């Protein structure tokens, strides 16, 4: 599911590793709210910028987490949010550049369940 | 009902790269949970967030159920002129919410 | 045989009185968290709990009930009038002859002065008002009133904290006095200091009260949890606040 979602975005183009930094705790405090920051090295000029950042996961019911659309006026290609991870799994961030190239980074995250579940 | 907490610098110099942070309350029900009696709780999430700077879209996010409740977003833009940032959240069940913040650019 | 019994009795007594954590060793749940969770609490524009504080501020000025009165009409600016209040709750209520927590105080005010129906525990409005009021004590040290009328309730609260319960036969003290800073599955065992309630718990993905947290722990040891608003829970809240004397209020806290 993860691979086909990535294939849907990237198509036949090569997916290179590099330029993208995925900041996510290797062992989460709680799988319901995991802080995540994706940053991409780019001059962010009118001719050379990050068009969008796409984040995927491996084991949630759905492979997509979020798509973030930037542009040359962003100044810095960095997005942060809080995500849900259902289980220990791989998270992948892919940046699409203005020249059409795709760059990616991935991280393995360990997610433990809370010690006690409550009755509501 | 508090719609959102927005953090935008009140002032900036032309050309500064500034961080914008937006936090809004929303349950972001993923659509995969069940009630105690086994019924599926339907999905109810914010699907899209956008930010316009004096009318021009500078950032847009497509959100999925994997985004935590009370979604938080941080992104950057270049301060070019004084004016207004307009934020919009759109989601399931006709959810629509707006907020704004002003900036003075010297 | 009698010596063995005497020794066991002495050991049991000793454990029961091992009791509270020394003042200089008291640590907030904040100190057990990872840096990115701490960062969530530290910044008011990224702390989800602040969304409820803002809502509470709006509710504070909302005129309701037959007399068409708002909290603000009697209490004025909460920043001044509510400063220090959360730090000394639960407090003794003369009419009821027992301590009440902040949620109950708000509901009592609604009934007596606004002729408005009570708000349920964990309802959005009650959480918002409690968060807003408690937030006015942020930074102030917890200081329960030195009121001898509270003494029997405090003693009952301490008993509840020390008593083993549920299928797992555990007392609060077993984890939170005797084993804090160790781990239960992947989670750190904290000292259970109620410094930041109502708090935004990542596990709940929403704001919740101390009573919700206590009920969650009771369910966790497979005990039948006390009902919301029950005297047992308020006595336990009273004991916990007394046990946390001197620690600064952090409302709204963020916890895993």
Chain-wise SSE layout:
The complex is a heterotrimer of chains A (120), B (106) and C (256).
Chain A lengths: L1 H9 L4 E3 L2 E4 L10 E7 L9 E8 L6 E6 L7 E7 L5 E9 L4 E8 L11
Parallel strand pairs in A: 1-8
Antiparallel strand pairs in A: 2-3, 3-6, 4-5, 4-7, 7-8
Chain B lengths: L3 E4 L3 E2 L4 E8 L21 E8 L2 E8 L8 E7 L4 E9 L3 E11 L1
Parallel strand pairs in B: 2-8
Antiparallel strand pairs in B: 1-3, 3-6, 4-5, 4-7, 7-8
Chain C lengths: L1 H17 L16 H8 L6 H12 L10 H5 L2 H4 L9 E3 L4 E3 L1 H13 L9 H12 L15 H12 L9 H5 L6 E2 L2 E2 L10 E3 L4 E3 L1 H11 L10 H13 L10 E2 L1
Quick overview of this protein structure:
The complex is a heterotrimer of chains A (120), B (106) and C (256). Chain B is an all-beta fold and 106 residues long.
Describe this entry's structure for a reader.
The complex is a heterotrimer of chains A (120), B (106) and C (256). Chain A is mostly beta strands and 120 residues long. In chain A, 8% of the residues lie in helices and 43% in strands. Chain A has 1 helix and 8 strands, in the order H-E-E-E-E-E-E-E-E. Chain A has a 5-stranded mixed beta sheet with strand order 1-8-7-4-5, covered by helices on one side. Chain A has a 3-stranded antiparallel beta sheet with strand order 2-3-6, with no helix packed on it. In chain A, a hairpin with a 6-residue loop joins strand 4 (50-57) and strand 5. The relative contact order of chain A is 0.29. The mean pLDDT of chain A is 93. Chain B is an all-beta fold. Chain B has a domain at 1-32 and 42-54 and 62-90: Immunoglobulin-like (Sandwich), CATH 2.60.40.10. In chain B, the strands form 2 sheets. In chain B, strands 2-8-7-4-5 form a 5-stranded mixed beta sheet, with no helix packed on it. A 3-stranded antiparallel beta sheet of chain B has the order 1-3-6, with no helix packed on it. The model of chain B has no long low-confidence stretch (mean pLDDT 95). Chain C has 256 residues and is mainly alpha-helical. In chain C, 44% of the residues lie in helices and 7% in strands. In chain C, the strands form 3 sheets. Chain C has a 3-stranded mixed beta sheet. A two-stranded antiparallel sheet of chain C has the order 1-2. A two-stranded antiparallel ribbon of chain C has the order 3-4. In chain C, strand 1 and strand 2 (98-100) form a beta hairpin. The longest helix of chain C has 17 residues, at 2-18. The model of chain C is unreliable at 9-18 (pLDDT under 50). Classes of the chains: A mainly beta (120), B mainly beta (106), C mainly alpha (256). The interface between A and B is medium-sized, with 30 and 28 residues. Strand 6 of chain A pairs antiparallel with strand 6 of chain B, so a sheet runs across the interface.
